[in-house]
Specification:
Blueprint: E1 6-7, E2 12-13, E3 39-41, E4 74-78, E5 82-87, E6 92-98, E7 109-114, E8 120-124, E9 129-132, E10 139-141, E11 154-160, E12 168-174, E13 185-190, E14 195-200, E15 211-215, E16 221-225, E17 231-235, E18 242-247, E19 256-262, E20 265-271, E21 278-282, E22 290-294, E23 302-307
Antiparallel strand pairs: 1-2, 3-22, 4-5, 4-23, 5-6, 7-8, 8-9, 9-10, 11-12, 12-13, 13-14, 15-16, 16-17, 17-18, 19-20, 20-21, 21-22
């Protein structure tokens, strides 16, 4: 997600222009100036054992059935309008192509989700929604009408309707925007009618906050919130209520931010002050440590990330 001039319950964030030239990111990734490699922040509860956000057990298949290999990858979209695939287990970004969606003249990509067939759904800053091929980045209009239920810009993710089900729902997280209006909270989009329905507000201190979403093949939905530091929480898909809040020590959403769940862990993509994105991993499948695994992604700023319900929910073997 990319902030224009956005206001949440706790702070005002002003627009900062994109920077850097995109490139095919299959080359080795440079470390940042003065970086000696990944940095790690231990879990805030070092005495805890087991996953912070359980999403399966040892009997959960790591290779979902009926899915293409492409549908098991993470995909990201940049502020520069480029689509990339990402292999978390190898820390490799590969450029697919440049989006040429028929959004408004000044509109830019804002968020992304990926369905079970491996198709990306990209929301632009003017509220439009397009389907994008993860093979060649070509765009297709969806007929979605912006500003439904006061949602203009929103985070988004697919989540299975039941654990292991092939049926899934597209959930959206509204962003309250000072210029465009809008409301914060959880909603969903019916892909047959392209109708957006508001579900409910978040709970407690997360009420009114901006959020990005990621979902899983075992029917979970999580939010990445613009608190200081950022917060990760579980979402009730029926009400919008949040629970299991975890403060992400050392992680700031900045002005370009997204996240995904893959292989039992959470992956956060953040950039501040016009800089390129970094990648941070929360080891949910293990000790709960927070590690900057890529200080620089290689010259682009990630504003949306999507992973389908075909992606593994436990660490690959």
């Amino acid at each position: 997600m990319r902030f224009g001039k956005a206001i949440t319950a706790s702070f005002l964030v002003c627009a900062i222009g994109a920077c850097g030239a995109s490139r095919d990111a299959t080359e080795p990734f440079p470390e940042g100036p003065g970086d000696g490699g990944p940095t790690t922040t231990p879990t805030s509860n070092p005495g805890d054992s087991g996953p912070l956000f359980p999403t399966g057990d040892a009997t959960t298949p790591t290779t979902p059935t009926g899915c293409s290999d492409a549908a098991k990858l993470v995909y990201v979209v940049s502020a520069e309008n480029d689509l990339y695939s990402f292999k978390p287990d190898g820390l490799v970004f590969s450029k697919i192509g440049r989006l040429n969606c028929a959004a408004g003249a000044l509109a830019s990509p804002n968020s992304m989700a990926v369905d079970r067939s491996g198709t990306a759904w990209v929301n632009f800053s003017d509220g439009t929604l397009f389907k994008v091929s993860t093979k060649d980045a070509t765009c297709q209009s969806t007929g979605f009408q912006p500003n439904q239920s006061q949602f203009v810009k929103f985070g988004m993710a697919f989540s299975s309707n039941a654990a292991g089900s092939n049926d899934e729902t597209l959930y959206v997280a509204g962003l309250s925007d000072l210029l465009a209006g809008g409301r914060a909270g959880l909603g969903k989009i019916d892909l047959a009618s392209m109708k957006l329905t508001f579900i409910g507000d978040y709970s407690g201190t997360l009420r009114g906050q901006g959020a990005e979403l990621t979902g899983t093949g075992d029917a979970k939905l999580f939010g990445f919130y613009t608190t200081e530091p950022a917060t990760l929480a579980t979402l009730d898909k029926a009400t919008g209520a949040t629970s299991d809040n975890k403060s992400l020590t050392g992680v700031r959403t900045g002005d370009a931010w997204a996240f995904s769940f893959w292989g039992g862990d959470f992956w956060f993509y953040t950039a501040t002050g016009g800089q390129e994105s970094r990648v941070t991993r929360l080891r949910s499948s293990g000790d709960g440590s927070i590690t900057v695994v890529m200080p620089q992604v290689g010259g682009f700023r990630i504003v949306g990330a999507g992973v389908s319900t075909c992606a593994p929910t436990v660490p690959p073997r």
